[in-house]
Amino acid sequence: MSPQSKPIDVQTKLSQLSLAEKVSLLSGAGACSTIDLPSHGIPVLNTSDGPHGLRGGGGRFFNPPQGYQLPSATAMGATFDADLLFRVGKLIGDEGRRKKVHVALAPTVCIQRSPLIGRGFEAYGEDPVLSGTLAAKFIDGIQSRNVGSCIKHYAAHDQSTDSKEDEIWATRRTLREIHLLPFQIAMARAKSKPWVFMSSYNRINGVHASEDPWLLDEVLRQEWGFEGLVLSDWWGTYSTSESLNAGMDLEMPGPCMWRGKQLMTAVECRKVSLQTVDTAVGRLLQLINRTALASKPLEQGSGEDTVESRALIRKLAADSIVLLKNEIDVLPLNKDAKVTYGLIGQQWKMPATGGGGSSEARPFYVSTPYEALVEAVGSQEVRYHAGCYARKWSPLIEEDLFLPNSKVPGLLLEWFGEDPSKSTTAKCLMADTTTSTSMYFSQMFFKQIPDLHYIRVRSTFKLDHTCRYRFGLCVYGKARLLIDGKEVIDQWSSQPEKTDDTPIFNKLSMERFFILDVKEGQEYQLEILMTNDTGKAIIGGLGPGGVRVGGQEVLNEDQSISEAVELARSVDIPIILAGMNADYESEAYDRRDLHLPGRTNELIQRVASANPKTIVVTQGGMPFTMPWVDQVNTLIHAWFGGQETGHAISDILFGDVSPSGRLSVTFPKRLEDTPAFLNFGKSDHHIVYGEGVFVGHRYYEMLKNDPLFYFGYGLSYSQFEYTKLDVPAEFEPKADHVMTVSVEVKNTGSRDAAETVQVYISDIWCKVQRPRKELKAFKKVYLVKGASQKIDIELDKYALSYWSEEFSRWTAEAGTFKVIIAGSSDPQDELLQKSFELPKTFSWQGL
């Protein structure tokens, strides 16, 4: 439908719509869109997953349009740079305009109470002030381009494995100070306010979030003044009357399960009032008005792959990287020095650009770390070794596959209504090509394709060297792999018992394997035949089906690790790139431990022992343990780096950018030390937030049990001096409750660099137990060498207040408070302190 010519007059339109038409608007039409009513001038509203780039394409996972792939949200959090997040939001908004997306399902501000949460990489960090402040700027950036921002998941979305079944039990203070606070801060500080909220899957204290009047009406609408739309997480609606009466306006996705005829009946029997329906429809129409411009073309180049977009994403990735150790000053490296490098680890050529699940995006390109290092120093100085396996499943085959009888990269897919291997007359109903060997057909609807169908995938495989090559096949449905007409993997007649998590939202079967002795230059004809028939009774029809084929050279890991160690001895500087990836960090399942994949720890340990100049670069969206940390002199954490992973790592290694990232989550020494250790996992569907407000660094400080690396920690290639902390003697409770503190920061090092000023507040005495200190403000400043700057930071009522269970209000008690300027949350990094008095207790509600 063409864009609206003028805004919808909401009240007039409501008077014109029938009850059936109104009800139809309150659930989705498909994967990511709403119903349109052309006769009434009501267009479709398109949404798209968006924390790290918009997938678009109607929500489909098969061949979505190319776009931006940003670093993980935990990486964005590590920048501690609100102004940068505004620019990133604008970039996402422009991408939405190009892809005809009206609402970006981002940002995610859920707090990671455990490092095990599978999709923890999608949220900014463990601290509610950091998360809410960054979210506010991100939201303003997106919405400045007339694309709506949907902040999620409201609230306390804690686990990824079967999260619909989870019931959270938490005190109101725990919810208010930790799990609701980032949403509240985003509401308070985003100038444009979020236009959309997404409810979470779980129950909170016995009531599902999507039908909780306290959460959706009393807190969100009455206290915070939210006037926008609330939609459910996908398939996160569990009722008809309860959800709509509580204020959950839009059931997603479509077709509806709970609205439609059920809602018509609920209105007729007066379980739901017509006024409630009108209010929800009015919010949807108002959102359509707000996003109307998103349907109109932008200036040429906006939202596309440009020099400017590449530079911004590269800056975001580089600014997120955290220098954790540089004990013998190996870094920064000198591009012009005659130095040999040993690049060790599969991730040099297969980097972890993002986590798994609905946040995955199809990037315009990927800058691999290997290519970036060669670009920086030349191929003559670089030697590479895989070291050991880095993946849980066979890596996707990203090269060496060609369309049949062609030199064009890719795979040919053909859809049939009957099994083409059993019928010579089976007619191809549709054909398509792809370059990805992960093929999930969710949200694909074609009139010519029957509910039960078959797909044949064909490609030519050719390597430029001789090796033993292992293929891995898994399927959602049934499948078999044939090579040169011979069946080599059978996932059709039987499938292995499921003993672990599997790819694509944990829907696929366990992998089965076949090893092929590949000869250099020889062509092998690959064919996959699959059906979406799972062989199980399914209410509501068959699932969409999917198939995944991966492959890699067979390694003798004992020999391979030994060879990597010898390489480390033979070069001037070995650089290991290792860590987590989308196989381990993904939506739909949580991790069970904090170990690095396979024999990675052994590889790092042995290489570091062989050469003290070893640099270890790790990737991951969430923390992991480092049993080798004391043996390593030089350590960098590079998160999931998005499409500019390689350039960003190179920029930091060679000092083109001085590292300024700060950890957005605490890295523990071991899983047993983490705050939620006894209250996370699937031993019980009831999850007690027993750690209360002591999440992340608050917990470690209270127990005086140091983690591996504290929240907020990070080194630089320069040095900074803090002086002249100025704090008013008293915080005067005025109408705006704002106090300005200042500190002077000087770059005393030899390099231009950015520094993050972290301001913590300590309540010296309080009748309730509070954390030793809490982050309440931060500001990133760029200083050339030798320069100094006075930094002014405002502290408001949020900086002093806790949630009073006794009075159900935010309360700041009269007494002494301390401003702490720190390099991180580590007590040993506290640089300057000064106390002030709050002469009179005050309390408040709202924003």
Question: Can you describe what's shown?
Answer:
- The chain has 847 residues and is of the alpha/beta class.
- Among the domains are: 10-295, Glycoside hydrolase, family 3, N-terminal domain (TIM Barrel), CATH 3.20.20; 401-553, Galactose-binding domain-like (Jelly Rolls); 720-844, Immunoglobulins (Immunoglobulin-like), CATH 2.60.40.10.
- The protein contains 18 helices and 36 strands.
- Strands 12, 13, 14, 16, 18, 19 and 21 form a seven-stranded antiparallel beta sheet that branches.
- Helix 5 packs across helix 7 (181-189), helix 12 packs across helix 17 (645-653) and helix 15 (557-570) runs parallel beside helix 16 (600-610).
- The longest helix has 17 residues, at 82-98.
- It is globular and about 85 Å long.
Notable characteristics:
alpha/beta, TIM Barrel, Jelly Rolls, Immunoglobulin-like, globular
Summarize the structure.
The chain is α/β, with parallel strands linked by helices and 847 residues long. Helices cover 21% and strands 24% of the residues. The strands form 8 sheets. Strands 12, 13, 14, 16, 18, 19 and 21 form a 7-stranded antiparallel beta sheet that branches.
